From TrEMBL:
Protein species of origin: Pseudomonas eucalypticola
UniProt-recorded Gene Ontology molecular function terms: ATP binding; D-alanine-D-alanine ligase activity; metal ion binding
Keywords (A to Z) from UniProt: ATP-binding, Cell shape, Cell wall biogenesis/degradation, Cytoplasm, Ligase, Magnesium, Manganese, Metal-binding, Nucleotide-binding, Peptidoglycan synthesis
Role played: Cell wall formation.
The family this protein is said to belong to: Belongs to the D-alanine--D-alanine ligase family.
Domain of life: Bacteria
Full protein name: D-alanine--D-alanine ligase
Cofactor(s) needed: Mn(2+); Mg(2+)
Binding, Mg(2+) 1: D247, E261
Known EC number: 6.3.2.4
Lineage: Bacteria, Pseudomonadati, Pseudomonadota, Gammaproteobacteria, Pseudomonadales
Amino acid sequence: MKVFVFCGGMSSEREVSLKSGAMVRLILENAGRDVVLVDTAATPLESLVITGEDFVFLALHGGDGENGTLQNYLELRGICYSGSGPLASALAMRKDISKKVWQAEGIVTPSARVLTDGWVDGALDTIRFPAVVKPTSEGCSVGLRIVDNKAELRHAVSAGVVDFGRVMVEEYIQGDEYTVAILGDKVFCPVLVKAPRRAFDFYSKFESLETEYIYAPEVPEDDLQAIKDTAWRAYTALECSGFARVDIIFCRRRRKPYVLEVNTLPGMTNRSIFLQASLRAGYSAARVMELIMAYGVAQRSTNSLN
């Protein structure tokens, strides 16, 4: 069996994806796997000879690699792959739609409004500041901004629509940011993130050396359990499978976790929270990869599009 590691792609997260792909390849090769690294932006998928015995490990982030498009392509060809299926991937990538699912399930998430036509006078007069402006369909916090007044809001919305087509103006929740790794049915200890900026944005995730990740936060056990329970509910409400990372804000004043988003293909670089949380939970990197692959095979064997 060959393992094809898909990475790169054409999304705004290409560079991170290339690093994830290189790390996955290294781990799998060290474990004795026959690995083929594929930059999907440079290699037509139709040119690949992938049999029903092979496996595709998705190390893509954002764009068609994470929004259900590639997952549907692989499903229709009977190819096993890692992570969630087409429907769950699409729901998770569309932050505005995932919010509606969570709200219907009684899962707390910041309120938001979507704009597709840029600034509309009077449309956001009821917004309280600070507020969060973000694209509805980008990962890695690409394009995320926190604004403090109407002028900043107007600029962020107008620029966001030009750059991404659809933006979401979201309620700002004052609290501590956590991210929760999920592997199969295991929900790992929430990781407390202390970013140098108010937002855990792309810079804080991949460029800053000041961002702190606290893998055993000294907070009340009840709070940690509430965060874990909320992460699992958000994950299952979207019918995700295999593995993911869930981002949450815990409002200390209200003692309540708010779900921000589910990342169905979290980063796999040496700095990535998912791998580090798994290692601290007692899993070797090779074991994590083998489990992700096993979950992918099991999920595809059910012929489910979730």
